[in-house]
Prior knowledge:
The complex is a heterodimer. By secondary structure, chain A is of the alpha+beta class. Chain A has 16 helices and twelve strands. In chain A, the strands form two sheets. In chain A, strands 2-3-8-5-7-6 form a six-stranded mixed barrel, surrounded by four helices. In chain A, helix 2 runs antiparallel to helix 15. The two termini of chain A are about 30 Å apart. In chain A, about 40% of the residues are buried. Chain B is α/β, with parallel strands linked by helices. Classes of the chains: A alpha+beta, B alpha/beta. At the A-B interface, helix 1, helix 13 and helix 16 of A face helix 2 and helix 3 of B.
Amino acid sequence: MIRLAATIALSHLLSRRRQTLVSLLGVTLGVAFFLAVSSMMQGSDADFIKRLVDNSPHVTVYDEFREVRPQPALLSFPDAVVEIRSQKPRAEVRGIRQYKEKLALIADMPRVRVAPVLVGQAIVSFAGKDLGATINGVVPELMTKVSTIEEHFVAGSLETLASDTNGIVIGTGLADKLGVGMGKNLTVTSPAGVVRIMKIVGLFRTGNAAYDDGQAFVLLKRSQSLLNRPNVANRLILKLEDPDLASSVAGAVEAAVGYKSQSWQEASQDLMSLLKIRRIMMYSVVGAILVVASFGIYNVISTVVLEKTRDIAIMKSMGFHARDVLVIFLIEGAVVGLAGSLLGTGLGFLMMLGLSRIEIKTPFNTEPTSLPLDWGLFPVALGVGFAMASALAAAYLPARKGAKVHPVDILRGAA
Amino acid sequence: MTGPLLRTEALTRVLPGEVPVTLVRDVTLEIGRGEFVAIMGPSGSGKSSLLYLLGLLDMPTSGRIWLDGQDTAGLDEDALAAIRLRHLGFVFQFHFLLAEFTARDNVLLPMRRLGALSAREASDKADALLASVGLAEHAHKHPSQLSGGQRQRVAIARALANDPKVILADEPTGALDTRASASLRDSFHDLAHRKGCSIVAVTHDPTFARAADRILYLVDGRLQPPERAAELFQLSIR
Lengths: 415, 238
């Protein structure tokens, strides 16, 4: 029956060639645009997440707790009904206690690299100019294993810090503002009142202005003395072999060390939500193209049903079932949907090929980059699936109408 | 199987509505195997409505129909469609051929739907049927390339495709000239008497009706007794 239904369906479509071609073109363009746009969006999402994952720690352990720890008075008298005012609260000592032990504990975890950091604020001065900067005290040998900062050096390196204990690495933005370059001495003043003269041994440029204007790297020991916090680190930075495991690793680390451990997904929740919203918007727009295209299919099949009412009546009088008629018109929708999807996929790949040849020069990249595209089969499957679904849905309504034709009503009218 | 091929009992069809219209009233009849029966009557007397009921295209409001001993009451749409496909053939006033298909493809349609024959067997049978109605050399033509009489003969060949037990014809000569009508009349006569296929034909054409074995006469949906039918037929000739 399917072969017979397909023969009849094709004869119907061929009897209205121009209308069929227009609806076919609609589906073709719809699928092509769907493919090109969703490939571009998927590609840019993947590229964005890759940059996010590559350039930020996968897990960061902070010197703070998820929930504020209760004061000793509350712990001693949990059921007390009288509040004692003006008691002296216990002051928290900032920093990760016994960070070296915790560092060793995390380093023993499989497929995890970890580095300690002491982050603090300082004033960096040169030739009468004072600028605020975030001082990152690092162990260069460990830091290079968990950070991509090395890739962004325009002069010197992080390793140089190891050989020059008074060395400092700053961003090019900060250097430009101060008017300094490699080898110059800066005066660094911490909130603890400690003043150090430090020599610039490295310059980096990440392209992120806020980072390049405000971050500086020194040796961990130097930052501990500068910030007057000996033997303390307030961050542990983790890099994982599989970034997707960051959430579970963060949970395990937090359970093991007690300090707040944040995965990159948690830290970038706002950005991930933004990507999600962007994706919904994109699929709504390109999906709308296919929905509009499906109106063309609805139109052609409705017209055929209307024109072929008499044929439907005669087929039913011959012994065709209502579902045979339904199948005939659904096949018409499927044929237009499938042919449009195949042509649209071809056209979509051609469009993607064209897009991939467009070169973009960003301000911080000397090498031109091309548009990030996702060449995977997911957008194709999604586009074809959506086109087929809308084609069948568009065909179903007139097909159902055709299937419901009562032969006697038509034969009486025709007689 | 013995007994009548088609039998009805108190068949009534009322069109519902604000003012219900009775199309067929209390019709009880029997059609024998290989019998050629003409149904006559004035316009609006319910001839076509009775034919649609006999062809299981419409459902009676009351009464029953037996086809070859099988009670058709209570059968669903699919079962009725299966009976139509296997045992009934229809010829209408207007040929109702599928315009996009050739004469051969039109004749092949019921056979392909039934699926009892191989493609080759079905094609050979279609050619044989077209040859039997004198259209062997027109098998490849589309309906638009055939005359009215030729189209009607293609419709007859199509009605015969699945070797039906009954051919139901609604004004088959209505759109034909005298010569084509005579040819069709002979075809029906031959089908009934040589091939044993029962024919029930609604007609206004007394010449055509005269070729039938029996003439039924309907007035206001009611089947007239044989004597009254003969009188009315005579009146219709004048």
